[in-house]
Amino acid sequence: MNFKTCSAPQGSAEALSRTGLFIKRLTDICLSAVMLISAAPVMAIIALAIKFDSPGRILFQQRRVGQHGEFFEIYKFRTMLTGTPDLPTDEMLKRRSPITRVGRFLRNTSLDEVPQLLNVVRGEMSLVGPRPALYNQTELTARRRACGVLRFPPGITGWAQINGRDELPDDIKVKFDSWYCNNWSLWLDLKILFLTFRAVLSGRGAF
Question: 2, exposed or middle or buried, with CB in 10 Å at 0-12, 13-18, 19+?
């Protein structure tokens, strides 16, 4: 395999220093708590809509690759029919769509991602960081490991998400993730959060 698709991971460890990690974590906890409280009424409405739309659980759990390559269970609002296999987006596009009516709306507005605030509070994710790969995306995980991306906690949004989201091939996503890890700062995180709202409103790159 050729992993010359990213910049060398030099600076990744230094960028996320112990102090930087503490500030990033503190920011995550404070903002996530405020967001969860503010979004509680909307989350309740979404839960009812999912329940009435199709049989199955309201929340969807899926094994993802976290910081240092450790697995964790990510939370999302369920947007697909129960029993849909765990496949990357590009593979799902080749099949008959399993997305429910409510699920389509949630995906277009990215509201299905809101429960990941629980992952942030639990310390499994950050508000900003590389999007966590599926447990079975072994090649993508290997590329990220080689580029030093797995040194950072995965995020709800990230540099790749505001620069194309699902329309980007994996090698380009890794390049964006590597750049973010090598240039991390609190101001960069705040910039990405701000630009995420614009990307969500435009719906750019969401399949």
Answer: exposed
